[in-house]
Each structure stands twice: as C-alpha cells, then as structure tokens.
Amino acid sequence: MSFWKREKSYVYYRFFHEAITDKFDFFYRLATRQGDLPPYSLRNLVGGAKGFKEVGPWFLNEFQRLDLFRQNCRILDVGCGCGRLAFAFSTDPNLRKLNVRYVGMDIDRKSVHWCHRRISSKNDLFQFYHADLRNRSYNPAGKYPARDFRFPHPDRSFDLIILTSVFTHLLEEDLRHYLLEMFRLLDTDGRIYASFFTYRSRQEAIHGTGRHPLKFPFYHDHFASSSDLCSENAVAYEESFLLELFSSIGFRLCAGVMYGTQDAYLLGKQRG
Ligand SMILES: C[S@@+](CC[C@H](N)C(=O)[O-])C[C@H]1O[C@@H](n2cnc3c(N)ncnc32)[C@H](O)[C@@H]1O
Description:
CATH topology: Rossmann fold
Radius of gyration: 18 Å
Strand content: 15-25%
Number of strands: 12
CATH superfamily: Vaccinia Virus protein VP39
Number of helices: 9
Mean pLDDT: 93
Helix content: 25-40%
Bound molecules: S-adenosylmethionine
Number of domains: 1
Largest sheet: 10 strands, mixed
Shape: globular
CATH class: Alpha Beta
CATH architecture: 3-Layer(aba) Sandwich
C-alpha cells in the first residue's frame, strides 16, 4: 500500500484543515449566521463536519424519550469532543429548569478549550476538563494510557454517564477499565448511555451488518477493526462478549439494545 493510501489517524488531517479548511469555513459560518459552531477542524473530529447542529437535539430528544433527565441530574459526558451534545443541552430551557449539571471530559485539548470558551462562559452549570490520554486515532502523543486513568471524581458522583461514539475508538483494555470506572462513578439508580459498533459473527464483522456505515475486516476474535494501521479509527465488538462483560462488572440492561448506525446500550447497576 502506498504511503498516501494508508489509513491515517483522525488528527493526521488536522493540520491541513486548520491551515486551509478552517479559513473558508470561517466565512461560511459568518455568511450563514452560524458563528456559534466550532471550526471545521474540530467538527470533523466528531464524526463529520456536516450535520453537527442536528446531532445534539437528536440526543436531547432521545434522552427525554428514555426519561434520563431528572431534577438536579449530574451528567458526565466522556469523550465530549467539541460539545456536539453539550451545545444543545446547555441552551435547552427544560434542562435549565431541572438544574441539570454537566461535566464534559475529552483527550483533545483544543476541543475542550473551545467548550470552555463557548459553552462554560455562557452557562456555568456546564464544565469541561482535558485528560492527556493516549489514543492512536485522536491523541497519539498523549502522555498517559487510558487504561490507567482514574477519573477525578468521587464514587457515585453521577446520575447519567454518556459515551456516544467513544467506545467505537477504544481497544479492549481501555474499554474494560472505562467500564469499571463508570461503575464506580455511577450513583445507585443512575444510567449509562453508551454506543458501540457490534456484530454477532465473523461474517457480520467482515462484510458489515448493513446498519453500520463501516465494515471491520481486521478480525481479532471478540473485537474487529476497520483498519490494521490505526485500529482505534473504528472498533467493533462482538455482542455476546459485551453482554458478558457488562454483567461481570455488575451492570444490567435497562432497555432493549437500540440498534442503528451505532448500537446504543442503556445500563444501570444490578440490584441487590
Ligand atoms: C467520534 S468523537 C465523539 C464525540 C462526542 N461524544 C459526540 O458524540 O459528539 C470521539 C471522541 O472520543 C474522544 N476520545 C478518544 N479516546 C478517548 C478516551 N480514552 N477518553 C475520552 N475520550 C476519548 C475523542 O477525542 C473524540 O472527541
């Protein structure tokens, strides 16, 4: 495979987008009165620059449908990116009334910086922090391995923990460790909303399920990757492996799996 055809990590394209695309995008945002959007180079890291504004309201509706927002609800959004969800949540009057408090965490420094400047500055119930963790796709030069990271919050600090399109970039050790940390951080009646790419057989992983936009030809038993060069670009897990892992940690499914372009799981703590 030639150098140019190799699949690169997402941040590889960043320098080009910062130097060129962001300049055009700046004028586009001005002309279309969308100056509140993050620059293209940041939007591009959270699953494509187009449709940024639609995704946040979609999740807001979905979480309302699932009855996940309660009075004084404490939310942790792990891998919040440049605030695709936080932007919609922080401007929603109902969440204001419910006195929802939100903490966003990400390993991409510039995304977190943008969220500080553009979201926390307008709504002090929304806070963000950066952790310099390694991910070959998003932060290849990160100082610390994600599998050793202790989230800086006391046990049972959150009622709702969100991981949208984050476990789709984490390999098994990081996934296990994050799930254990989420179990520690979740309050007794809290919920975790997490999305994954899942498959049920080797065939499905390699040839695609039809519902996911990607195929995962690099198969390693209970996980598979879309690329052999940068496996964290997109990772899929075998469904039965995930269900066993959830249960061994002490989670239960609080709703049927929501299959879609990514498959969403609603988890709570096992009772008794
Ligand atoms: C596809 S984006 C999704 C962003 C956001 N959750 C959303 O739905 O808009 C994946 C995000 O996960 C972050 N990420 C990757 N590895 C991470 C890790 N170990 N811990 C926390 N965030 C991570 C990336 O920096 C990126 O912002």
